[in-house]
Each structure stands twice: as C-alpha cells, then as structure tokens.
C-alpha cells in the first residue's frame, strides 16, 4: 500500500486537544473493547498511588473537528529536563471513526499529532505500547516517524470472552476440561461472598503481598489496587469476590469494569482452594456478575510475558478470542535521547 506523507494536503490533519471529564466520558462510551490502562479512573489511581500525572486528550480532525479518539498519557516529571511520558494501550478510537492500522495515512497523521504534543508538553521521552495489532507495515511506518521498537519491551497479549451471549452459550464455549473443573467446584458446594470493600481490600492486601513474597513475583502494587477500588465513574466498577467452603475463604478475585470491558486483575487461592477449584468458580461468577452489570467483554488479564505456564494454560482453556498488540516503542524529540 502506498503511504502518503503528512505534507500531502489530502490527508485530514489531527490534533490532540485537552479533554475535560464530561467530554472524556461521552467519547469513552463510544470505544469498543476499551482497555483498562486508557480509562480515566486508572489514570487517577496511578496519580494517587504513584508519582505520575495523567494528561488526557481528545483526538480531533483539525482544530475543531469531530472527535475520533482518546489518549491518556501518564507523565513522570524529571527536574530540569521535562517529562517522561508513558502511553499504555493507546490511543483508542471511537467506534466507526477511523482505523489507523488499515489506513497508514491516518496512522501518520495521528502519531504526528502525538509527536507535536511531545514538543508542546515538554515530554522529553515517550514510551508507548500502541493499541495496534502486529504488522510489519505498521512497524516500518512507525520507524519512519521516529518511533523505535524497544526490544526489551514486553508485547501485550490476552483473550476476551463475549458476555453478550446467553450464559449457557458462554459456558459451552469453555474447553471441556475447564467446564469439568467448574462443575466440580459447584458440586462441592462453594459459595460466593462479596463483602464491603474496606474489609475485602484489607484481606486482599495481606494475602496478595504474602503470595508475592512466597512466589517471588512483583505483581500489581497493593497501593494501586486500593486506589483503583476507590475510583468512581459512569462506566467503572470494581468488585472483589470470595469463594467460601464451609466457614473458610479459599479464593479471591479482583475484577475491574472499564467502559464496555471488564478485566480480571488479580487472584488468590489457598492450598485447599486449589483442590476445590475455587478460581474456576470465581471467574465464572465474575462473568455472570459483570454481564448483569452491562459489560460486553471479559478480558482474562494477559497471556504470555510474565504469565506462568500453568496460569496461561488455565486461561487459554476459557477459549476466548485471543489478541496481541504490536509491542512497545520509544520516541524522543531530543537528539541525544534518540
């Protein structure tokens, strides 16, 4: 496909315009398959738990044209230098507006607008993992724009389950062995508990941090989990669900809803809970709950990368629609950082 350059006057220019909450929420409702890391609430949680400042933009055609997308940037301020900007799973585009991976001229214009914003906002370095599928053409095109592939950057991959279907159809889509584990958990008599958030978060922090120490993994900081649970928004929901057997808690999951999608974030299972298949029980209950709350997609929370082989095997047997993204890139307007 012939790639038209930015100076081609037939290409509609794009601009990043600062977004207020009302405009953001109105546009966010039009994003299909909305990623957690581009949600307003996630940016607020990172701001309150870590040293990042969220900057949010509407992507518009021209100066005052119709909105076509959104971009949330998490900026870490470096004294005297400026800011280091982190963009995860962005930009995102409104349903039916444009598809940059299919239109290189739009891709060039949008990423050109991001480069212009970097100079204007004094972002001295951008680390970006775009919401774009793998493509040799897109990789080459980003390279020509000055975005360099970070070989050490971790690629994004996961799978989503369509919750719009009837529950029996969703369940029938699981691998037979996964369904058997779920059947076992239900026959054993596990019960669901959804306690008030303060008490649930205290239990989560204690058990999750203990699991991090015992198994030697970093995971999601519990301070960030607490802040995510504290957020509010028209398309935001955070739920902590527990499985009980007799009087004992034997499993826990935290699932967050953002836009039209919900994501399995963290989980904990006791030694008896593993034998009781508590995680299968809880994930199924979470799907049913978020389906009732009006969410369309359930994201299993990541495949590959740092996901252990056992956890990945467990998630893949849900047989969701797997997807992968193009990976991580960096850009700097400063010659010595390139």
What descriptive keywords fit this protein?
single chain, 338 residues, alpha+beta, Aminopeptidase, 2 domains, eight-stranded mixed beta sheet, seven-stranded mixed beta sheet, 36% helix, globular
Structure description:
The chain has 338 residues and is of the alpha+beta class. The protein has two domains: 156 residues, Gcn5-related N-acetyltransferase (GNAT) (Aminopeptidase), CATH 3.40.630; 143 residues, Gcn5-related N-acetyltransferase (GNAT) (Aminopeptidase, 3-Layer(aba) Sandwich), CATH 3.40.630.30. Helix content is 36%, strand content 28%. It contains eleven helices and 15 strands. The strands form two sheets. Strands 1, 2, 3, 4, 5, 6, 7 and 15 form an eight-stranded mixed beta sheet that branches. A seven-stranded mixed beta sheet has the order 9-10-11-12-13-8-14, sandwiched between helices. A hairpin with a 2-residue loop joins strand 10 and strand 11. Helix 6 crosses helix 10 and helix 7 runs antiparallel to helix 8. It is globular, with a radius of gyration of 21 Å. The two termini are 28 Å apart. The N terminus is likely disordered.
Topology, element by element:
Elements: E1 14-18, H1 21-28, H2 40-49, E2 53-61, E3 67-78, E4 82-88, E5 92-93, H3 104-121, E6 123-129, H4 136-144, E7 148-149, E8 157-162, H5 167-172, H6 176-188, E9 191-193, H7 197-215, H8 222-230, E10 236-245, E11 248-258, E12 261-269, H9 271-275, H10 278-292, E13 297-299, H11 309-316, E14 321-324, E15 329-331
Parallel strand pairs: 4-6, 12-13
Antiparallel strand pairs: 1-2, 2-3, 3-4, 3-5, 6-15, 7-15, 8-13, 8-14, 9-10, 10-11, 11-12
């Amino acid at each position: 496909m012939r790639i038209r350059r930015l100076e081609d006057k037939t290409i509609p220019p794009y601009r990043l315009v600062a977004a207020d909450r009302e405009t953001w929420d109105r546009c966010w409702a039009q994003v299909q398959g909305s990623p957690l890391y581009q949600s307003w609430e996630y940016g607020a949680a990172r701001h309150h738990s870590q040293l990042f400042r969220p900057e949010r933009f509407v992507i518009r055609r021209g100066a005052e044209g119709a909105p076509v997308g959104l971009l949330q940037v998490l900026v870490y301020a470096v004294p005297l230098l400026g800011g280091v900007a982190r963009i995860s799973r962005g930009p995102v585009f409104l349903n039916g507006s444009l598809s940059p991976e299919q239109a290189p001229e739009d891709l060039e214009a949008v990423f050109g607008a991001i480069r212009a914003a970097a100079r204007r906002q004094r972002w001295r370095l951008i680390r970006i993992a775009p919401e774009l599928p793998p493509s040799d053409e897109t990789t080459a095109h980003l390279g020509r724009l000055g975005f360099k592939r970070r070989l050490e950057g971790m690629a994004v991959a996961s799978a989503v389950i369509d919750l719009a279907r009837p529950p029996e159809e969703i369940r029938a889509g699981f691998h037979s062995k996964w369904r058997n584990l779920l059947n076992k958990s239900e026959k054993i008599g596990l019960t669901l508990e959804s306690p008030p958030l303060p008490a649930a978060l205290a239990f989560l922090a204690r058990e999750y941090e203990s699991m991090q120490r015992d198994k030697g993994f970093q995971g999601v900081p519990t301070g960030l989990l607490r802040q995510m649970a504290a957020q509010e928004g028209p398309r935001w929901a955070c739920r902590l669900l527990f499985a009980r057997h007799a009087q004992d808690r034997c499993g826990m999951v935290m699932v967050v809803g953002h836009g039209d999608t919900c994501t399995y974030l963290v989980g904990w299972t006791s030694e008896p809970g593993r034998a009781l298949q508590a995680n299968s029980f809880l994930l199924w209950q979470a799907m049913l709950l978020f389906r009732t709350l009006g969410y369309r997609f359930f994201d299993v929370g990541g495949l590959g990368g740092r996901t252990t082989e056992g956890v990945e095997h467990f998630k893949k047997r849900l047989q969701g629609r797997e997807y992968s993204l193009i990976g991580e890139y960096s850009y700097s307007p400063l010659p010595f950082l390139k």
